[in-house]
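Form 12-C: Joint structure prediction
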Amino acid sequence: MTLPHPNTDQISLPIVLGVLGDPTRLAIVRYLASKEGVPLNCSQFLDLGSKTNLSYHLAKLREAGVTRAEVVGTSRLITLRRDDLDARFPGLLDSVIAAAGDDPALPMVGGHDIEVPA
Amino acid sequence: MTLPHPNTDQISLPIVLGVLGDPTRLAIVRYLASKEGVPLNCSQFLDLGSKTNLSYHLAKLREAGVTRAEVVGTSRLITLRRDDLDARFPGLLDSVIAAAGDDPALPMVGGHDIEVPA
DNA sequence: CCAATTGTTCAATAACTTTTGAACTAAGGA
DNA sequence: TCCTTAGTTCAAAAGTTATTGAACAATTGG
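Section 2 - Result
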């Protein structure tokens, strides 16, 4: 019950860049980065699209080697493959996340820019 | 007789990533980076595709804000927009070029890996 | 002026990507 | 067991991107 992931040396630069060149997927990666260490499941991204559509985008990210999905019960716990990406393409993920960090054109997972508690 | 270019603040991260997510265009950018300072014209990329096809890919790069094309006579002198990209997305171009630098899966402009003089 | 060089544009086609809804599987709880 | 939850798969439709060849424009040199 494990999903297919490329190993580190199979991660391809053009494929990673192509996969990140989609606003929905970039928003997923930005959100994963903002919660690094906390594994998220698919339903936490439902702001970004339908269940089916997210399944598609999350599969693209996984197949490109950007994310890892671990099957736990009926959930898939999704994490960024930061170590593998840093090893393969040093600095790339950080610069992408920094650039995405303040892009108002990207969709938001929370539906708003900033968490504003009372 | 000037071609349309986005200004710096109009350069979009997902569009840049999407445009770089193509092996031909990544090879163009890698070659431009390897000859930085030297403006190149389109015909120097003919190893990578037909004249028509290169016109298409070079237009994509220019419209995304990755390259600048200056019209000089019948030529277009093409350069990387390094300053603009660095200002907008610090570190991104460098990490992409470094990652592309040794990717044997990318097409080569010279048709060979390394310049081997006598 | 004529021809060559450089590159663009256009229309067609092929190939791929995204999005959708309906049907499905698999695990977990009552 | 039955129902719910979580997510996938499939097929269709819609949209986008890449590639090609033929025709075109603009500049340069003879």
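Section 3 - Comments
Residues 1, 22, 24, 49-50, 52-53, 56-57, 60, 73-75 of chain B lie near DNA strand D (CB under 10 Å from a C1'). Strands of chain B lie at 67-72, 75-80.
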